[in-house]
Amino acid sequence: KTCAKCGGRMEEGRMVTTDSNSARLQVGWVQGVPQRSFWTGLKVAKKDILTVATYRCTRCGLLENYAE
Fold this sequence. Notes:
Number of strands: 8
Helix content: under 10%
Order of helices and strands: EEEEEEEE
Structural class: mainly beta
């Protein structure tokens, strides 16, 4: 992949976050706006979550996200 902004090389990676217990979690994508859940934080079926691939330009740092 080539960066749309500067033409640099794009490298693949993943967006990662941490929960309150410092566990590392991969960011996902779901259609629409999820409802809140007392027990899980958000009411979302696991089968509806898509993995997100993130590409970063090695020259300018631009990030592009793609739901897989």
